TrEMBL record:
It comes from Halobacterium litoreum. One of its GO terms (molecular function) is ATP binding. InterPro entries: AAA+_ATPase (IPR003593), ABC_transporter-like_ATP-bd (IPR003439), ABC_transporter_ATP-binding (IPR050763), P-loop_NTPase (IPR027417). This is ABC transporter ATP-binding protein. Transmembrane segments: none annotated.
């Protein structure tokens, strides 16, 4: 598939769009040996540019966690290289630490007894940040996440959504080049999840932060990510811009409505020639969905209907979403183990 195309975002003179911040090359990881060996990651390569938001997706057991932990230096890969901001992660783990932040355990990575601001200061200090420079950055983050009024409250006192935002702000507090976010919206209510997605997108668009995230929620991925890397059985099976992936599937499925009922014969002909499902008999019409294989067009469907004297009332293209794409390329539902 084609390489990533990017969403439009304001030009940033200091950070060219094409600058590679993360390069993973032929990463492999085998756990155990002999008969018990598990090849968790099997030759994974991908790159992430500055300012890009990339989703690493895959069914359970696909190798996402192993890949991300290898990038972060928490797992030693069997072979392959990882470079972050030009620094080799395994030759120079300390050098790489300066460039990455990670939120791996949701809201649990913050100190609940400390205030919101103290958490940000603590995480910034871990990265050796100058306190004064960091303060301006933290004010901005607090504003952005609507946490300014809560800055001096203990995290413990906050709602789940606010805790999650503090966690994200703390991850960003060090001002690293890349942040890794594992299921950033997990467990949030709809409102908090929507707010977090919006803020993540804004941070990428306005401040060119680079984000690698994993999520089983395809809506989150579709709204926040520029690009997705889909893993299956330890290999990359898709690496493309979200809109290109979804575009491949476009206009192949339609919902049609015809007047009255559809005769058994016409139904049978349609079902033999096309993938037809979700028949619905409404008061004065019949509704159904048709998915076209590559060599079919909608005209073929219309011909069958005309032959059967069915009057067409309405045709709507069914917009595919990332969940459909995921299901198609992996054969499994996001979050499902396919068993
Ligand atoms: N420490 C380990 N020892 C042995 N096998 C492991 C270990 N960690 C992971 N595995 C195996 O490696 C494979 C990939 O696991 P990994 O956790 O990287 O996948 P994942 O895509 O993150 O899955 P999930 O979505 O369930 O977290 C799986 O078969 C898993 O059982």
């Amino acid at each position: 598939m084609s390489q990533a195309t990017q969403r439009e975002r304001p030009p940033d003179e200091s950070a060219p769009e094409s600058e590679t911040v993360l390069a993973v090359d032929d990463l492999r990881k085998t756990y155990g040996d002999g008969e018990d060996a598990v090849q968790a990651v099997d030759g994974v390569s991908f790159e992430v540019n500055r300012g890009e938001v990339v989703g690493v997706l895959g069914p359970n057991g696909a190798g996402k966690t192993t890949t991300i932990k290898s990038v972060l230096g928490l797992v030693v890969p069997s072979s392959g290289t990882v470079e972050i901001a030009g620094v080799d992660a395994h030759e120079n783990p300390r050098g790489v630490y300066k460039h990455v932040g990670a939120m791996l355990e949701g809201a649990r990575n913050t100190y609940w007894k400390l205030t919101v601001r103290e958490n940000l200061e603590f995480f910034a200090a871990l990265g050796g940040n100058d306190p004064e420079a960091a303060r301006a950055r933290h004010d901005k983050l607090l504003d952005r996440f609507n946490l300014a009024e809560k800055a001096d409250e203990a995290v413990n006192e906050l709602s789940r959504g606010q805790k999650q935002k503090v966690s994200l702000a703390a991850t960003l507090a060090r001002g690293t080049d890349v942040v890794f976010l594992d299921e950033p919206t997990l467990g949030l209510d709809v409102e908090a999840s929507v707010e977090l997605r919006r803020e993540l997108r804004r941070l990428a668009d306005e401040e060119s932060i680079t984000v690698v995230l994993s999520s089983h929620d395809m809506d989150v991925v579709e709204q926040v990510c520029d690009r997705v890397v889909i893993l299956s059985d330890g290999e990359v099976i898709a690496d493309d811009a979200v809109e290109d992936l979804v575009g491949v599937f476009e206009t192949q499925a339609y919902q049609l409505e015809v007047e009255g009922a559809v005769s058994e014969r016409a139904r049978d002909r349609l079902e033999r020639a096309f993938i037809v499902e979700n028949w619905e008999a409404l008061a004065d019409r019949t509704r159904f969905e048709v998915t076209l294989a590559d060599d079919h067009t909608l005209y073929g469907v219309l011909d069958v209907l005309r032959d059967a004297d069915c009057t067409l009332l309405d045709v709507d293209g069914l917009e595919p979403d990332l969940e459909d794409v995921f299901l198609d390329v992996t054969g499994r539902a996001p979050g499902g183990d396919g068993e």
